[in-house]
Design brief:
Elements: H1 5-15, H2 19-29, H3 34-37, H4 43-53, H5 56-66, H6 68-74, H7 99-109, E1 117-120, H8 127-136, H9 138-144, E2 148-152, H10 159-170, H11 178-187, E3 191-196, H12 199-204, H13 206-217, E4 222-228, E5 239-242, H14 248-259, H15 269-276, H16 280-290, H17 295-311, H18 321-330, H19 337-347, E6 353-354, H20 355-361, H21 368-376, E7 379-381, E8 385-388, H22 390-395, H23 403-420, H24 430-438, H25 440-450, H26 456-465, H27 467-473, H28 479-490, H29 494-510, H30 514-530, H31 534-550, H32 554-571, H33 574-590, H34 594-611, H35 614-630, H36 634-651, H37 654-670, H38 674-691, H39 694-710, H40 714-730, H41 734-750, H42 754-771, H43 774-786, H44 791-807, H45 811-820
Parallel strand pairs: 1-4, 1-5, 2-3, 3-4
Antiparallel strand pairs: 6-8, 7-8
Amino acid sequence: MVLTKAGLNRLLAEVLPQDADVEAFVAQNFGTIARRIARGADRAGKIALLVDNADLKVLLDKISGAHPVAVARNEHLLAEDKRVAGAPVPDAGPCVGRDALLAELAAHIHGDAPRPVLLAGDAGLGKTTLALALLHAPASVQHFGGRRYVAHLDTTVDTEAAVVEVSRALGVTPEAPLLNRIAEALRRAPALIVLDDLDVPLEKDPANVRDLLQRLTAIPGVAVIATARSSSARPDGFHVAAVKPLDEASAREAFLAVAGDARRSDPGLSFALTEAAGNPLALTLLARAAGDGPLDLAVRTWHQKQNELLMREDGPESASAIEIAVALALASGRLSDEARRLVPLVAALPNGVRADDLATFASSGTADAAVALVALGLAQDASARYRVRRAVREAVASQRPGVEESAKATQRYTGLALSNGPNVGWPSGEDSAVRLAADSDNIEAMILRGFDGPHRIACIDASVALATFIGSSGHGTPRVVERARDAAREGGDKLGEADCTQALGDIALARGDVDEARARYLDALPLFHQARAGLSIAACLMRLGDIALERHEYEEAKLRYTDATPFYRHIGDRLGEANCLRNLAEIAALRDEYEEARARFKEALPIYNELGDKEASAHCMKGIADIAFQGTQYDEARALYQEVGPLLEELGDRLSMAQCLQNLGDIAFALGEHSVAEGHYQKALPILKELGDKLGEGTCLSTLGDVALACTEIEDAQAYYLAALPLLREVGEKMGEANCIQSLGDIALTQFEHDAARSHYENALGLFTALKDDYSIGWTHYRLAQVAADPDIFKNHLYAARDAWLRINRKDLIDDVNTEFPGIL
């Protein structure tokens, strides 16, 4: 969403209702412009000046931090003409004869500890209308602000689909795991969510849906209203409100609310009311189908449709009022031929249809057909997204959409996948992910239909394009890509089959199933070879290399990257070539093959420079610097770190910048430049703390302790070590912890506190022993010898130091001890 001054003005006007609120907020967060803001004549003037003079994003961040609940309640105001925070919701329409029930429901949901409610009743009795009436009621607006949502569950096939629909209703970022995103969004402030047609997923997946309901209703301040056609599967803790047919007087008023009061004296009214049997939706459909014509004619047509339903081979034994009313409305002369043709197609779109999408596959090039369906009561309009009612969807379920309209719709939705799918996962891909999420079920449904039509190849390509979105968003299933793979295989399309197989690997990898991903990539590789697709072969090898590298299977990773490099080089993909070389460099560095690593980094660096890829160039330079640092080539390392540091700062890579500063500090410390070392560490420390890098922070504090200790600033050194220890322990950094403890022992020793020194050394020894670090084990025993009060204990520690160093062939250290304590070893 693009931030606008008008939107922030509306938000601040609600969040800061008093002059004093504005003044306090400005004083605390924008003190430098407080005098300018104070010139405003009134609260509105001050808010306008604040919005004009502050950075909009900073202003939103500050107000969100100062008033998180109020902002959550009102953030829909940031957008023009938006009434709710999530997806648009339809109006309720007339809700006649339900005042007592509405009052009962309001008592359950408007308290501080709302109780979930289940509205149970047959089709068409107005459960959805009741829920929407409550959602739009002034008391709900007052209590929940814009945090009022509707999740349409009538087409969900399982709990995962229900979770997707709830996330779509809330408008959360399409990013798995969706259930976590939903919980985060709902916890921000009190909210009301309608789960319409809950019986559909509850019947198909009862245990998991009940678990979902339990999680939603357990969130403090969240009110849940569910609708269902049966109360037999009552969820735990829900208050069940039975929705029954209207009595005759209420039915009459409900009919007249739609048809107009002029119908009150119509002689056919009593017959119409009898046929509709108190069913509010049937009354609405009958009234709208009749239009201005005689009611007795509409009643005769009702009987005709009833007979047609009963005579149909697949018809019901006895037709309900709602079934007859839907048939009557669909046959209405007020419905154009185009609208009637489009009903099966619109019903087949689980997410409803946007007006601009409908216009692309309607022969008229407009959304007039949907407008007509809404006018007849067959569909609902939520800000130009149209959904047919569940009863209508069921009535036309056996009808196949028209070939021409279906082909156009397939073209439209595959186009959405092809134009948006490849953007997902890139920095500019957020809008594409949001667009796909809004129609993810529609896209999948139309692609699946399209495999048998003229757009088969486009459907295969669209399925591949969706892979990253399916893997990362929590929307959709691999089913559409599996069907695409089978279609490609059936058509002898080796490249299409390979692309789909690799796409299935991408989905599995994004969802954390690395073994499945690897298996699919291995399946795809020979298919790419058969198709002679050099770039695809290289990309598949890269994916296999990445998996091996992540698993620390360095030999396989090296093999994959080595194999991929000539393919990239042959087709002239310089970036792919450079990435392979850089990965090979990193593998070599991890295996302590520093000369190999240096050579590969130096091959990759000029390519990145040629391509203008500053980030990759910086990381190659840092890699070369790290190798020089490891090899104690301090002059080269220092020069490279000093060169790459500002570049990393420019790129915003604060972690790498902090690592460079730490290593510069280590170089200075090794060269005895203690004040220089301290300066580098002090620069790195706040960055690491800000990033939440507890290992880096703990290590930096420890090295500051080393500098202080070397400068005999004993108290500072002790403070740094004590500050580092809990951080190192928290992240399980045993070596750092042991070194800190050993240094605390050294401090105690300098202060002649031998018992304290001994205790620290013994603790450090236990850690070094667990780590099997014989070098440090030897030096710790040497230190323990220094504080031994008994000659035999003294000798035993020196013997233990000797044995540890013998295990790592450090005879030079043993010779040094022999020189210091002749005749003992």
